[in-house]
Amino acid sequence: MVKTRMAPSPTGEYHIGHIRTVLYNYAFAKKNNGKFVIRIEDTDRERFVEGASDRILQVIKDYGFSWDEGPSFQSQRLEIYKKHALELIEKGNAYYCFCSEERLTKLREDQKAKGMPSTKYDKKCLLLSKDEVKSNLNEGLKYVIRLNVKPNEVIKWKDEVFGEIEINSNDLDDQVLLKSDGFPTYHLAVVVDDHLMEITHVIRGNDWIPSTPKHVLLYKYFGWELPVYIHLPNLKEAGENKKLSKRFGAVFATEFLEQGYLPEAVTNFLMFLGWNPGTEKEIYSMEEFINDFIVSKIHKTDLVVFDRDKLSWFNGYYIRNMPTIDLLKALREWSNKYSVDLGVEELGEKYVLKTLELVKERMKTLGEFIPLTSYFFRKPTVLADLLKKHAQGEEVKILESYTKLFESLKVWEKVELENKSHEILERSGFKPKQAFMTLRVAVSGTEATPPLFDTLEVLGKEEVLQRLKTALKLLER
Ligand code: GLU
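Above: the input entities. Below: the C-alpha cells describing the complete assembly.
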C-alpha cells in the first residue's frame, strides 16, 4: 500500500511551501488509495518552539487536509532510535564518540585553516577498543553515536524527479545519529520512522537532496529497502533568485488565511507550483487534482516562482464564483476567526448580501470587502474638490436636479433609476460622465463603486436623498 507522510519540525511556523508539500503528499496517497501520515519531528530541542506543533497541525486542517495516521511525536519514541543506533554499532556501522566540544571545534578550525572545502570528523573514537568504550560508558562520560561512513563507497539512488543521483562516501561526514541528550538527529529518526511506519514514497522539498545520501547509507546499513524519493522544487519570489521573503508579503501559511485568502483558492494555486497537467485547465478541485496528479509531470527544477499576482487571481476567481450566500458565510467565519470587524452590524443580513453581491466581482481577498463596502454601512466623507473636479462647475445644479428627480420617483429600482437619469441628461445637457461621477462621489465619497444604479438601488431612496442633501450643504460652505 502506498503511504506518504508529512513530517513537520516544530521549530517555527509553517510556511506556505510546506502546505504545497502537504498537498502533493496528500494527493499522491489518495490517488493510490493509500494513506497519508503526519509525524512531528521534535527531536531538535535547541530549536524547539513551544506550541508550534499544535499550530502546524491546525493550519494543515485549516487548509482542508486530514490524515490517516498520526500525529506521532518522535520525542516519545526515543527508545526506538537508541535501539537502532545500538544495532548499527553491533554491525560496525556506527560507533560511540566521546570527543569534547573543544576538540571538535579545534578540529574544524584546523581543517579550515588547511583549506579543506568541508570539515569532517576524523574518526578518532572509531579506534577505541571495546574495553575503552565500556569503561568510558561506565564512568558516565558524555557521548554521541556516529555513523561509520566507509571510504570510497558509491552512494546512489534514483530520484523520481531528478533522476539518478550519485555521490562518493568520501564527501560525507560521520554524521551524529544519537546526540548526547539521548535524542536522535533528524537523519536517524527520519530513516527509522519512515521504515517502521512503512512509508513508501518520500515527497519533500529538494533542499533535502543533500541529506538523502546519508539516508540511503542508513537504509543500506540497516538492510532495509529504500522508499521512493520524490524531491520537489522550492518556491521563490518572482524576479528574485531567493526563497520567499517577508519583504514581498505573506510567507507563513496562516498569514494567507488571515489576509482573507480562501483555502481552496490557495491550494488550487499551490497545485501549479511544481506540477502542471500539460493542458490549459487551471481551476482544479481537490478531487480533480487527485485524479490528474502524476509524478512524471512534476517539474524538474530547483525553484518555481510563487507568483503573488496569480494567487490573487485565483482567489478573486473563487470569490466571484462562490454563491453569495456561501461567500457571506465564509466572510463571517473569517471575521470571527481573526477578530476582524466587518462593520456591517445593524443593517441586516439581506442588506449585507446585496452589497456583497455588488462588490464580489472586485474582491481579491475577503478583507477587501471592508474598504469596498464601507460607504454602504456608514456615511462617507465627501470632498468638495472631488465633486467639483467631476462636475466642472455644475455640481450644485447636477445634485439639485437629481434630488428633485429622485424625490419624485415612486419605484426605486435600478432600471427605472437609470432610464429616468438619462432623461435628465437630455433635458439639461449634462454629459453622462460628468453627471454620474458627481452623483457617485456624492453618495459614496469615492470614484470607484459597482455600477452606479445598482449602488443607488441598494443604498435606498431615503439614504441617497440624505447624502445628496449633505453634499449640497458641503458645497454651500
Ligand atoms: N522534519 C523535516 C522538516 O522539517 C522533514 C524533512 C523530510 O521530509 O524528510 O521538513
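Note for the figure: Residues 7-9, 41, 186, 190, 204, 208 surround glutamic acid (CB under 6 Å).
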